[in-house]
Each structure stands twice: as C-alpha cells, then as structure tokens.
Amino acid sequence: MKNDMTAAVVARNLLTPKDNRLLSKRSDELAVKDSLAFSVQCAGSVSNMAQRLFARTRQVESLAAEVISLK
C-alpha cells in the first residue's frame, strides 16, 4: 500500500473489486502474507495518525494557553 487512505480502507475491510481480483489470483500462502503486510502497514498508518493528532492537540493546548495569557 502506498498511502494512509489505502491502509484505512483495508483496515475497515472495504476492499475494492480490483483488490479482490488481485488477491483471488494469489495462492493461499501468498494471500496470507499479503494480508499480514496490509495489517502491519495499517497499524503503522494508525500509529502515525495518532502521533499527528497528539501533536496537534498539544499545539492547540499551547495556543489556548497563549490566548488566555493575552487577556
């Protein structure tokens, strides 16, 4: 998977028809390996998004404190 959107789609089990066609042509062993790779990439994307949201929350808290100090 090339981006976070693809990882999110896979995480929600919303595979596109193209994905289903690609996966159906693979052997069971390869399909399991691909599924595992999708899961690992999805976990990485979710972790990355959580870190960005945490950083954004800290930034908002900092700006809110600055606004209060200016009053």
Q: What brief labels describe this structure?
A:
71 residues, mainly alpha, 3 helices
Instruction: Give start-end ranges of low-pLDDT stretches.
Output: none
| Overall tally of structural domains | 1
Total beta strand runs: 0
* Largest sheet geometry: none
- Look at the structure and give the mean pLDDT: 81
Estimated helix fraction: over 70%
Tell me the strand percentage band.
under 5%
Order of helices and strands: HHH
Distance between the termini: 48 Å
Describe the global form: rod-shaped
Count of helical regions? 3
The rounded Rg comes to 19 Å
Structural class: mainly alpha
Q: What does the model show?
A:
This protein has helices at 4-11, 17-24, 28-70. The protein has 71 residues and is mainly alpha-helical. It has one domain (4-70). The mean pLDDT is 81.
Topology overview:
Elements: H1 4-11, H2 17-24, H3 28-70
Helix pairs in contact: 1-3
Summarize the structure.
It contains three helices and no strands. With 71 residues, the protein is an all-alpha fold.
